[in-house]
Amino acid sequence: MVVEFAAASSSFGEGNVNTVAYNMTLPAGVTPTVSLGGTATLDTDYTYSITQTGIQVTAVADGLYDPNETVIITLTSVSGNAVLGTVKTHTVTLTEPPLVVELAALIQRVRGATNCDGERLVGCALDHPDERLEKGNMPRLETRTIDTHVKRLREKLGSVGVYIETVRGVGYRFVGKPPGVGAGARDAAASAND
Q1: Which distant-in-sequence residues (6+ apart) come within 8 Å of 147 by Cβ?
Q2: Do 49 and 34 form a contact (C-beta atoms < 8 A)?
Q3: What stretches of the chain show up as alpha helix (H) in DSSP?
Q4: How far apart are CA 53 and CA 91, in angstroms?
Q5: Contact (CB, 8 A) for 164 and 100
Q6: 3-class SS at 172?
Q7: pLDDT tens sequence across 22-54
Q8: In this predicted structure, which of 48-62, 71-85, 158-172 has the lowest mean pLDDT?
Q9: What span, in angstroms and rounded, lies between the C-alpha atoms of 100 and 102?
Q10: Using CA atoms, how far apart are residues 17 and 9, in angstroms rounded to an integer?
């Protein structure tokens, strides 16, 4: 009897359960041993169990945005009257839909922040991340002023500046949550307005 994975890769989303199937249902007394690797962390990002039909992987729904992560499962041995086949490694990609946090609508669309202007542009946006920044709703600011502030903010943020996305014909929004960005982004934003 030859035991191997039915496929070399699969993917599924956070909060779901998936079984990485063997090429057959294993009879009693035939049990594989596995090793795990990849970018995902056991018990934090996923859990697993070995069954007679495959390796059951549960992606933990932690409520945090993580870029796609991988779990690499390798069949290392098999007990009973069986041998390992050629498809001994399976890569599971734990997917998460892209996180889109829209940059706040400034001036009149921001609740209670009608006094936002060029001096407080980025601070207002960060205070109200649930609303979109729309250039047309900022009567005290010229369109190019907003573009200039966003450009300066991107420059000050360096490599994470790419997380401020241009929404063509509308304005801007934050896309995803870059690692390590928190209060420091607010400080960078404040200095971008200097």
Answers
A1: none
A2: no
A3: 121-127, 143-157, 183-192
A4: 17
A5: no
A6: strand
A7: 999 999 999 999 999 999 999 999 999 999 999
A8: 158-172
A9: 6
A10: 15
